[in-house]
Amino acid sequence: MALRDRHRAATATTRKLCSLLLQYPDQELLDARAELSAAVQELPATPARRALQHFCAWWGKEDPLALQQHYVKTFDLDKRCGLYLSFYGEGDRRERGSVLLRLKRLYRAAGLPLEGTELPDYLPVMLEFAAAAPSGQGSIVLREHRAALELVRASLRERQTPYADVLEAVCLSVGEISAADRARAIKLAAAGPPQELVGLEPFAPPEVMPSAEARR
């Protein structure tokens, strides 16, 4: 296998692992902790692997209930650590619907239609797409949301949660942040997400809204 192909395969595996590690640790995921930690060890020796190794040293041994409580406190109760990336730029405004619809259409066009109940801007969904999409389409999607990724990474670092290591690996898989994206991340951090401007209308059209209740 050529060096470029090995790098592409390692990046895809890293993104797939990050997708799983960023999901709520339900029983199925908890049962897979040893397997996922072993998969991290098999990655090439890179800063991304070191970040994931550091995370798994905690995640693989933490008490299950404590791990679940930590996850909820980190991602569900802190808006600056949420994993729905378009929220940072659009908030709950109606304009966010066009972003979600575009993502859903991109997934379908690549032959990887969205399944399940999560919205298409949920980072584990985006990472799963990025790991499997052909012709670099997944990298493009992640780069388009690079500022939001940087904001979440910085917020997790500020909280001193081990999940910051997973976001570190994600950002490393996307590449160095541009000056423009860094400035946008700083602006988003200062301003916070936009407020809803359209009353009680749903923020996304029915075709991108989940068809069932979320995981909890």
Keywords:
mainly alpha, globular
Give the amount of beta strand, in percent: under 5%
Based on CA atoms alone, the radius of gyration comes out at 17 Å
Mean model confidence by pLDDT: 86
Largest sheet: none
* Coarse shape: globular
Oligomer: single chain
Derived from helix and strand composition plus strand pairing, the structural class reads mainly alpha
Order of helices and strands: HHHHHHHHHHHH
Distance separating the two termini: 43 Å
Number of strands: 0
Helix content: 55-70%
Number of domains: 1
**Number of helix segments?**
12
List low-confidence stretches.
Answer: 196-216
Would you write up a description of this structure?
This protein has 216 residues and is an all-alpha fold. It has one domain (3-193). It is built from 12 helices and no strands. It has helices at residues 3-21, 27-31, 33-41, 47-59, 64-76, 87-90, 96-109, 123-132, 137-144, 146-159, 163-174, 179-191. Helix 3 (33-41) runs antiparallel to helix 4 and helix 4 packs antiparallel against helix 11. The radius of gyration is 17 Å and the shape is globular. Residues 196-216 have low confidence and may be disordered.
